[in-house]
Amino acid sequence: MAMRRIGSSSGPNNLFNICRGLSTTTPWLGSPDETKILRNGTTKSMNLFTAINQALHIALDSDPRSYVFGEDVGFGGVFRCTTGLAHRFGKQRVFNTPLCEQGIVGFGIGLAAMGNRAIAEIQFADYIYPAFDQIVNEAAKFRYRSGNQFNCGGLTIRAPYGAVGHGGHYHSQSPEAFFCHVPGIKVVIPRSPREAKGLLLSCIRDPNPVVFFEPKWLYRLAVEEVPEDDYMLPLSQAEVIREGSDITLVGWGAQLAVMEQACADAQKDGISCELIDLKTLIPWDKETVEASVQKTGRLLISHEAPVTGGFAAEISASLVERCFLRLEAPIARVCGLDTPFPLVFEPFYMPTKNKILDAIKATVNY
Amino acid sequence: MAVLLRKSRGALQFVKTRPGLPGILNSRIFSCSSYHCKSNNTSRNGYTLHSSFLGLPGYSVRFQASLHSKALQLEDHDYSVNDQDWDFPGGKVPFTTKIKFTADSSEDRIHCYRILDSSGHQILSNTSEMISKELAVKLYSSMVTLQMLDTIFNEAQRQGRISFYITSYGEEAVNIASAAALSNDDVILPQYREHGVLLWRGFSLQEFANQLFGNRADYGKGRQMPIHYGSNKLNYITVSSPLATQIPQAVGVAYSLKMEKKDACVVTYFGDGSSSEGDFHAGLNFAAVLDAPVIFFCRNNGWAISTPITDQFRSDGIAAKGQAYGIPSIRVDGNDVLAVYDAVRKAREMAIKEQRPVLIEALTYRVGHHSTSDDSTKYRALEEIEHWKTARNPIFRYRNWVERQGWWNEEQETELRKSVRKQLMNAIQVAEQLDTPPLTDLFTDVYHDMPSNLKEQERSLKETIKKHPQDYPSGFVV
Ligand SMILES: Cc1ncc(C[n+]2csc(CCOP(=O)(O)OP(=O)(O)O)c2C)c(N)n1
Ligand SMILES: [Mg+2]
């Protein structure tokens, strides 16, 4: 039995193109402003988990060969992201799996390799490690090792990540850097409800396996006007979400809100910060970051994951390569500590607004 | 190009000459020139692997023999031509001309061992030698204590005094009776719903409270979420949230006890949900192959958060899987204190005397929500919960029995509850007032010795705290 393939080159019989055909009618949104000019233009105020839920409804509705599965997704998931899906699309397309992450991802790879959209949920990013082999050795290399005869591009793995204030070691981790070391998968992290919906739909429809980390701290907390329509936001395209001239800040996910506050406070001290949301961590948009650093001459990167070996290190190295002569100060990293994520010490572990603000000042006054 | 080619050939040659690998690279895997032959016949693993590759008839490893690591005796092997059966590694396999698949499970489900009926009447008569009055009463009072501990700590979470809690409601018998059948030298690798085992071993209510409040007296130094208890003194290895990881670890611990010829075994607890993880299967197989004295104790409580066991597996529960791995297994009524006690006592005896793993599947029910973050009425029927909470309540059932023995009465009940309640309230008060752990505990224990990057981070954090004290909770000694 031959596996059908999706997402390979552009032949007319290519299944991916047939699937993709569904999405060609949906607008790509280049910037948040464009959301306002959607055809019917209706938006609704909603939180992040509702936006994710909407994206999943749209994904299942727009492609009959899409599936949602994972631990406890049948009743709506422990974070309510899959609410109503099993009821609407049936238990054969939305279902509980046995409690086994390697099984979830391995199953998803097989399902995707047959030309389906496999949308897998890992209950917490902290529990993605049993599936590490399936992601790193299998999903990421499925296309390459077969000479593009096969691929599992229809696979999207969703997992809530990051601090929540009381999660301790195993309900708080930000494991993105592990996956950024793996050619063949994409890693995407949204910062807000509107971003989450548009990016998730892009990930689901992207012809590559994607790991999509959702900032669980923001599931209920972040509320935003979100277009009701089916829309997608481009992958591998960073966004300047605040323009400035003295220093560039780069981040993603929940950390952007903290960085935003630091930028606002720095402004009071007369420092003009440019803030970039990277959105897709691999393959990442170096050009946008480079253009900004060429303008400001300074760079600060911030993430919750431990500083050593974190993705900030990669950004920093790349930007030194590209902007060495333009840099006016060492690149600053404000990140989590090199410890396991601690419970009572969480406030001390975190890359707080004031840690960022201090680093902004130190960099500008270098 | 040429250079590359030469280089890669060089690499291949290097690999070829490495000991241990020729079996793969020179495709002599089926021949005796592989390294297996270097091992003498007493090396069980080496020989078994080699012989199974050969697929040679004529020697037998009895199924049971694998439990005792007996050296294979070549003389016993029968090399005569025989078309009735094959001597295949693992024992004789008879031939059949009937094409027949095994059933997906046996027609009759594996029976469930019990001593007390639903109303606490004794079905088996000979319990007197098994259990003394003193033990019987301690079992009862510990179950009541466990339930009260859960009620009060759960309430503390509701009041926002602690961040999280998990109860063992409905599984009091599983917790207490299994612990009672063990010795304190037996090492426990828990999941997270087995704090009754710690209670039985003498973890004080104060020690429980200290962990839940993450204060200075918490052995885990406030680093983990509530209910992640651990006690070196009580041979209870610290709880870790990732599921099933403790199961293969338990086999390693058991192997160590075996090598040291200890009069002790290991008990690892896990849920029906965890039995789906790869680590469960790895652990069972390792234990069987390595003849490790470990008891796999599955609390089959019907649910893994919202996932019912019907979505979890189609086997006859967990007991059937134990058997598939070559591990003697038993199913027991997890709400029958005496049956659980008896099953664990016998399992322990087998594990230690025979140096082999044993699996126990206790049928029970998670009467409480999964945790304080869960509302189980969203996914299961109230009547179901109510039925297990009342008609199948393990404490009510056992109380009927102890009362019928004349070993317990209302007066003792009132006295016990009053005293436990007082101790618990006191423990909470004390725990709440104890300081948080010192800040340096954030950085210690990552490694045996603190590396320079952490020293630097500690210094810089202290400066930040000095500069922005308002960002940090008070009470931490910096
Ligand atoms: C590897 C891993 N995946 C997922 C989880 C999230 N999780 C915590 S408890 C649980 C259900 C466990 O059910 P079961 O093993 O039956 O134990 P019970 O809660 O019923 O005692 C899940 C899915 C986890 N802790 N670890
Ligand atoms: Mg369970």
Structure commentary:
The complex is a heterodimer of chains A (366) and B (478). Chain A is 35% helix and 19% strand. Chain A is an alpha/beta fold. In chain A, 59% of the residues are buried. In chain A, strands 3-2-4-5-7-6-12 form a seven-stranded mixed sheet, sandwiched between helices. In chain A, helix 4 runs parallel beside helix 5 (132-138) and helix 11 (286-296) crosses helix 12. Chain B has 16 helices and ten strands. At the A-B interface, helix 4, helix 13 and helix 14 of A face helix 16 of B. The complex binds thiamine diphosphate (TPP) and magnesium ion.
Ligands present: thiamine diphosphate, magnesium ion
Please trace the helix and strand order of chain A, writing H or E for each element.
Answer: HEHEHEHEHHEHEHEHEEEHEEHEHEHH
Mean pLDDT of chain A comes to 91
Regions with little confidence, pLDDT below 50 for 5+ residues of chain A:
1-37
User: Could you name the CATH topology of the largest domain in chain B?
Assistant: Rossmann fold
Structural class of chain B: alpha/beta
Question: What Rg of chain A is obtained from the alpha carbons, in whole angstroms?
Answer: 20 Å
Assigned CATH class of the largest domain in chain B: Alpha Beta
What is the number of strand segments of chain A?
14
Q: How many domain units of chain B?
A: 3
Range of strand content of chain A: 15-25%
> Kindly state the mean pLDDT of chain B as a whole number?
87
* CATH superfamily heading of the largest domain in chain B: Thiamin diphosphate (ThDP)-binding fold, Pyr/PP domains
Strand order of the largest sheet of chain A: 3-2-4-5-7-6-12
Report the count of strand segments of chain B.
10
The total count of helices of chain A amounts to 14
**Uncertain spans of chain B, ≥5 residues at pLDDT below 50?**
1-75
Largest interface: A-B, 41 and 48 residues
Q: By helix and strand content of chain A, what is the structural category?
A: alpha/beta
The largest pleated sheet of chain B is described as: 6 strands, parallel
Beta strand % of chain B:
5-15%
